[in-house]
Amino acid sequence: MAVPEVDKVMLRQLELMGFPTARATRALHSSGNCSIEAAVNWVIEHENDPDIDQIPLVPKEIKIESGNSLLISEEVKLKAHKLREQASQKKLDKNRSEREKEKEITQSAGKLMESKRVEDDSERKRMRALLKAKEEEQKRARERVRQQLEDDKAERKRKLGVPYEDLGASKPATPRVEEQRQSPRQLPAKRVTKAELRDCLRNLKRNYKDDNARVKRAFETLLKIIGNIVNSPDEEKFRRLRLSNPKFHERVGCLKGGVEFLELCGFEWIDGDRYLFLPRAKVDMEALRSAGLELHSALTNPFFGLLSVDGY
Question: Which portions of this protein are annotated as coiled-coil regions (predicted)?
Fold first, then answer.
């Protein structure tokens, strides 16, 4: 094995542009030794290769013919600079897009958690109010009994000629204290549990454990669907999903476990199984918030779905 022969003039031009000798040699050899522009393009496309700065080796009998090296050195430099700027801008755009997506996920999860906190506070206030009302009613009932006993005692004192023992026959019955009982709150239909939601997401991730990007995209899509309904439960467009929608089918519909998760959240099949629909009357905000929190955990917890019992 030997170092491949490349055009010395083009090699020198690349070195003057700031490329290391090994990288310039590999670029010329891999691009066919045809032109400076081709070599620069190859460097831009393969700048992240682990062996880009290693001298390539080829069999000794292989020779590379010289290519066209007639480009002016300054023109080549401008071309390389422009290509580098384009590659850099592409990376910046990709990083910006990823940051915006992560920000959107964080904001959606924050809204779900805040909504859950507000609902919990409201439930605690309601329970405290019910407990206080019950205590006050019991206090009023005890007061009515005490007053009745006082009235009976006064009545017996007025009947001084009647022996106290005989009062039992004529003693008026203690009036029954009617306590207003609050009708028990009707229990809702069986609500999906966090464990069921978590198991569904865990199974989805395990079904596609070799394609993390696909799983992440599915979780992000599901979180967006749930978040839209929580934020705007009266908007039917957020509660009606067309199964033939290409994006929905690619990201959720075709994945084993995607539609099942939506069914756990209350979605139903309608119109000949062409749509998934969540009726407004069946929107369970607590269940949807739980689903959103489980999805957020699945996106942010790197160990989600890897253990039989989650440690969080």
Answer: 194-221
